[in-house]
Structure formats: C-alpha cells, structure tokens
Amino acid sequence: MAVDVKPDPATLGENPLIEGLERLPVPATTLTIFGATGDLAHRKLLPALYNLAHEGALPERFNLIGISRREMPDDEFREVARNAIKQYSRREPDATVLEGLLSRVRYVGFDFADVESYKKLKTLIEELDEDGGGKLNRDFYLSTAPEFFPVIVKALKDADLNYDPDVDVRCIIEKPFGVDLESARELQSVVEHVFRESQVYRIDHYLGKETVQNVMAFRFANFMFEPVWNRNYIENIQITAAEDIGIGTRAGYYDQAGALRDLVQNHMLQLLTLVCMEPPASFEADKVRDEKVKVLHAITPPTPEEVRQCTVRAQYTAGDEGGEDVGGYLEEEGVPDDSRTETYAAIKLEVHNWRWAGVPIYLRTGKRLTRKVTEIAVQLKPVPHLAFQSQGSVGVQPNQLVLTMQPNEGVSLSLGAKIPGSSMRIRPVNMEFLYGSAFMSQSPEAYERLIMDAMRGEATLFTRNDEVLAQWAIIDPILKAWDADKGKLHTYESGSAGPTAADELIAPHKWRGL
Ligand SMILES: NC(=O)C1=CN([C@@H]2O[C@H](COP(=O)(O)OP(=O)(O)OC[C@H]3O[C@@H](n4cnc5c(N)ncnc54)[C@H](OP(=O)(O)O)[C@@H]3O)[C@@H](O)[C@H]2O)C=CC1
Ligand SMILES: O=C1O[C@H](COP(=O)(O)O)[C@@H](O)[C@H](O)[C@H]1O
C-alpha cells in the first residue's frame, strides 16, 4: 500500500527551503575559504555557492576569497572553480550566473603557518569591504586538515581579523573538531581565546540535510507518533550509515581517522540525538542544542569491558564495488601494510533516562558495504496478543518505522494488513512518503543550507562546543579500548553487508537488510 502524499499546489515546483532563505536578507559578505583547492571545496562548497547564486539567495554584494598553499593568479583559480562547479553542481550551470559568481572570486596562495601573509589577506578583505556599505559579514571557512584549525584561528587573531565592531565576523569549522576528547578540548581553548561562541559555526553536514531536519519535523509536527516514542512501545532503534564506496584517494586522512572518528563521533551521534531528544521549546539554536546535549550526557561512556561486548570493528577485504573486482583496504594507495584502521564500526548504546531506559540503540557504519544507505529504523514492540493466530495467520511482524536520509529520502511505516481472501491471513505492507514525489523538487545540498545559515548567523544546525565534547566523551573510551586491545579486528568482504561479528552484537535482534 503506497500512500502518495500529493503536493500542495501553492508550493508546487518551488523549493520551500530556498524560498525561505531568499526572503531573509543577508548583509554584504566576504567569505574566505581556507583549503579552497581541496576535495571538499571542489566537490561541495564551490558547487553549493553556485547553486545559492542560481537561486538568488546570495547577498547582492558577495565576495569569495580562496586560500591554499599553491600560488596562482585569480584567473587560474576561477578556472579551477568553474571546472569544479561544472563537474559537481546538482544543476547544469547557467553561464551568466556562473560568470557573475566567478567575477566575485579572488585567490591568495600562502602557507597557513605564514602569519605575515594574513596581513595581505586583511588588506584584500578591507578593500572588498569598502564597496559593502552598511552592515558587513566576514566569514572564514576552515576547510582543511584539522591540524591547521588552531594555526589559522591564532593567525586570524594576530592579524586582527577576528573582531571588528562594524562587521559580523564568523568562523566556520569543518569536522573533525579534534581527534579525541583531549585534542578537542585543546582546540576549543584556542578557539574561545579568539572568538566568542556565537561567532563559531562547527559543521556537521548531516544537520544540513533536509531529511535529517525532517526527523525533528516528523517527531514534533505530528501528534500521533510522540505518544509511542518511548521505552513502552519501542523495542530497539537501528541507525545505519552504509557506503558502497571505499576510501578512494583519502588514505592520508582516513587511515588516521577510521570509521569511528569519521562518521560515528559526529554524524551518527547527531542522528541519535535527534531521534532521542525531548521536544525543544522552540527551534532557536540553544534550545535545540540544550536538548541534544541532554541526550548525549545520558549515554554513559562504556567501560573497557563494555567496549569488548558492545562494539565491533572491522576492515574490508577484496571483493566487489559496483560490479567491479576490487582490492582490500590494505591494498589501497597510501594505506600502510599493517594498518589496523577500522573501515566498519558497530556499537550498541543506551540512553539512560526515563524515556529510553532499556532500549538498545544500534549504530553501524562502513565503507564498501552492499549499497549506500543512511537510515534510522525504529522497531516497535510486537502486539501483546495476537487474535488471528488460531486462524492460521502468517507474517505478522511488529511495526517498523524507517526514516531514510538517502538514497530514497522519505519515511516508511510497515503495517500488518489482511491478505485478500476468505482466511484471516496477515502480511506486512508499507505506507510510504517520498520527498521526491511529495514536494516535486530536488532538495538542496546540505552545504547550501549550512553556508546560508552561517552567513545569516543562524546557528541551530551547527554543533555547540559542549555537544562536540559530549560526543567525544562517548567515543574516547572506545578509541582507547580498541587501541589497547590488539586482538579484535574483524574483516568483511567488499560489497557484503559487513562482518558476521556485527550480527552477534545485535542478537537477539537482527540488522535490517542492506
Ligand atoms: N572531502 C570530504 O568529503 C569531506 C571533508 N570534510 C572535512 O573538510 C576538511 C577538508 O577536507 P578535504 O578538502 O578533503 O582535504 P584536502 O586534503 O583535499 O584539502 C586540503 C586543502 O588545504 C590546503 N592546505 C593543506 N596544507 C596547507 C598549508 N600548509 N598551507 C596552505 N594550504 C594548505 C590544500 O592546498 P594545496 O592543494 O595547495 O595543498 C587544500 O586546499 C577536513 O577537515 C575534512 O575532515 C568533511 C566532510 C567530507
Ligand atoms: O563526513 C563524511 O561524510 C561522507 C558521507 O557523507 P554523505 O553526505 O555522502 O552521506 C563520508 O564519505 C566521509 O568519509 C566522511 O568524512
């Protein structure tokens, strides 16, 4: 049974999100991207800026400064940006919009550690600000390896770029914010020495995804689910972030990070907080963050013994990716032969509060799994009494609610329904809402929403310091126990659903099929 939600004719063909963004004016802005020639800038940030320009959402007076190590004239960087946008934009670029955007682009090449060069940057920013008039925005986007975050932040202060009474200065910091609890605290102490918390925008791009925000809409804009959203009705929750691709060319970063730091510490714990938080009083940044932090604080960091029982880590071996034979993780370029970095992690957690006590929450993520899927599956308890059993009914399953973030964005609820015929036989059917058909428009990329929000000073979809530290407090003991325990690194074949040890972790429950 597919229940097709018909689009509201009033919004047909329009994108409600962008419509909302356009209406809010953004002051003249100079956005500086540190790491402008990197993978993230190339694949996500520059295309996102193009799409914002295309939607008419960028401020009229918008300037972009790209910074990275290599020297090149403005025009050469414009060509780099043009190619990146053509290759990765979600829509075919319009030549007029693209050239209009590129005409506002400048480039400065210097080593991030070279403090003298920040003076050059300051001169350029002040020059660009001159035609700004009125209120000004100055946003610094740190899209480079995390080791440079403190270096850049300190240099911005030394160059007096962190504060100006006539300008809203903001610092957007990519993930990961630190590599463990201690380094996150150290980074925070540098950041808070230079910026006020209200100036800092820590990115977790999952929060920018429409479907992730829809978790809150689904829970708090509908009356019917909240009464069952607790330990009395919910058996377990499974959060999956599976990828079919391997690590590609990112060995330098990934081999240091592993799946736990790369996805669990940030994106997956954020999904968990959205599923488990109490309804916030309003969608105002700190109200939402306060509720999320309470959830994180209610998760007791595991002891070494609990880590042994409640976590599984594994590495992919040779197998299949998209129908092609591929080598294992240890054969990837740049990965040391003896690397023990996990490309798969599964964890069982519990939120120790009145609502969730006793409900296991399973998280799993991995590279080179069967397919790409990000979803939250809420498994309800079985009905207390099955009236049809004596009449030979088959296939009665507990209800399952699945919020899919990607690829088929939407919500699906499994229900037991009578199979047509004379006997009372039941089988599960799905009631589905799909974003694509309901709103008939393509969702904006997460980075479009986040860049726009940062420029507007809207912090709800960014993580606060105490949130990031609470996330690390859960992950840190696992990292330490895994480091100390040299024995248990499982393997799984590329293209498979993951290691069999993960099935033992979730027993007596079962993972949803990939
Ligand atoms: N790539 C992705 O899919 C994702 C990345 N992220 C995060 O985004 C950030 C950037 O990642 P990514 O783009 O992949 O990294 P890359 O390694 O691809 O890019 C790094 C950038 O930093 C520049 N750079 C490096 N060292 C210096 C230096 N000493 N001085 C000046 N410039 C320097 C590089 O310039 P040059 O080319 O001149 O060396 C390049 O522009 C990281 O924090 C990552 O965790 C988050 C989510 C996804
Ligand atoms: O942050 C990261 O996310 C991507 C997955 O993002 P998605 O939007 O495609 O789900 C992951 O591939 C990468 O390793 C990680 O750094």
Report on the structure:
The chain contains 15 helices and 16 strands. The chain is of the alpha/beta class and 514 residues long. The protein folds into 2 domains: 24-174, Rossmann fold (3-Layer(aba) Sandwich), CATH 3.40.50; 208-506, 2-Layer Sandwich (Dihydrodipicolinate Reductase, domain 2), CATH 3.30.360. Helix 7 (181-194) runs antiparallel to helix 14 (465-484), helix 9 (251-276) crosses helix 10 (285-297) and helix 10 runs parallel beside helix 14. The longest helix is centred in the middle third of the chain and has 26 residues, at 251-276. The radius of gyration is 24 Å and the shape is globular. The two termini are 22 Å apart.
Total E-strand runs: 16
Bound molecules: NADPH dihydro-nicotinamide-adenine-dinucleotide phosphate, ligand LXAUTJHC
The pLDDT mean sits at 91
CATH superfamily of the largest domain: Dihydrodipicolinate Reductase, domain 2
What kind of oligomer do you see? single chain
Helix proportion of residues, in percent? 25-40%
* CATH fold type of the largest domain: Dihydrodipicolinate Reductase, domain 2
Largest sheet: 10 strands, mixed
Integer tally of domains:
2
> Which ranges are low-confidence, i.e. pLDDT below 50, for 5 or more consecutive residues?
1-22
What is the name of the CATH class of the largest domain? Answer: Alpha Beta
Radius of gyration, taken over Cα atoms and rounded to an integer in Å: 24 Å
Report how far the terminal alpha carbons are from each other: 22 Å
Shape: globular
Tell me what portion of residues adopts beta-strand conformation: 15-25%
Provide the CATH architecture of the largest domain.
Answer: 2-Layer Sandwich
Structural class by secondary-structure content: alpha/beta
Helix segment tally:
15
